[in-house]
Specification:
The chain is mostly helical and 183 residues long. 70% of the residues lie in helices and 0% in strands.
């Protein structure tokens, strides 16, 4: 006899329940979610522009994941740093903020190598991929918002000249492909 698989609950199961809640019940639910995790707090603060620094919590995560304390016995956490960018995007969808976090991601990873030492090939491949994404995001911004990012991308690329694994060569190729007038 075949065992019938149960479908996992999804948003389509929750939505009809939420539609029937009154304002007080919805407010209580959001309050409970807010208290439940720091990630939820950060999401709500960002979504509703509460606080002075909307990018700060996401930058902190990226920094802790990519420019970590080598004596803490914590590993590099590239996926968690990328998730911070994704979480900010889901909370706000702000292209300028996304560009800032993407460039910051590569700056942190690049600075770690320059200050502490060489890591492994997959680490640099992740930095290269984020650098490529950052370039695409920067180029999608209005021209008056691109200059600062362009300079920061160039600084990352030029400072990486001694780093191996093809990292610098890939950065240089991507940079000069996107900004050929800088050659």
């Amino acid at each position: 006899m075949a065992v019938k698989k149960r479908k996992a609950p999804s948003w389509t199961d929750i939505k009809p329940v939420l539609v029937n809640l009154d304002q007080k019940q919805l407010l209580k639910l959001v309050a409970d979610l807010y208290k439940f995790s720091n990630e939820n707090k950060t999401f709500l603060h960002t979504r509703f522009s509460v606080g002075e620094d909307q990018l700060g919590p996401y930058k902190k995560i990226i920094d802790e994941c990519l420019f970590f304390d080598v004596f803490s016995n914590k590993p590099v956490q590239v996926a968690k740093a990328k998730k911070a960018i994704s979480s900010h995007s889901k909370a706000l969808g702000d292209d300028l903020g996304q560009a800032e976090l993407m460039v910051y991601f590569v700056e942190c990873g690049n600075s770690f190598t320059l200050d502490i030492g060489d890591l492994y090939q997959e680490y640099y491949e992740a930095l290269n991929r984020m650098y490529q994404r950052a370039i695409v995001k920067v180029l999608s911004l209005p021209e008056e918002q691109q200059d600062e990012f362009r300079q920061r991308l160039k600084t990352i690329m030029t400072s990486s000249s001694g780093i191996g694994w093809g990292y610098h060569d890939t950065l240089a190729g991507d940079y000069y492909s996107a900004f050929p007038d800088d050659e």
